[in-house]
Amino acid sequence: MYIDSCMKDGEVLFTRADFEQLLGKYSGIDKVRPTEPLTLTYSEDAVSAVCDGKEISLELYSLEGKLIGRTRSSDKAVLETSALPGGIYIAKAICGETSAVRKIVL
Length: 106
Prior knowledge:
With 106 residues, the chain is mostly beta strands. It is built from one helix and nine strands.
C-alpha cells in the first residue's frame, strides 16, 4: 500500500516523496538550511522544536497519517513520546514560512 499524500482540511501535510526520503535515506537529519532559525530534535522521551523567538507549531503523526499530538509555543514546543509504542513516526515543525519534517524511530 502506498500513500500519495496526507491531507487535512485541504492542506497537504506531507507527500509520498517525503515518506520515501524519510524512510529510506534520512535517519534524523532534516534538510533545513543552516541559516534558518528552526531546529527539530528528538530523544527517547520527547520530540522538540525551537524557533528563534517566533511561534512554533509541532505535530507528530503515525505512519498511517493519524495525528498523534500537536502543540504550539512561543519559544520551545515539546511533545512527550515516552508513552508511545515503539515504531516509526513523522514529526513536523512549522515556524513562519519554514517547516521541517523528520522521521522519529522509537
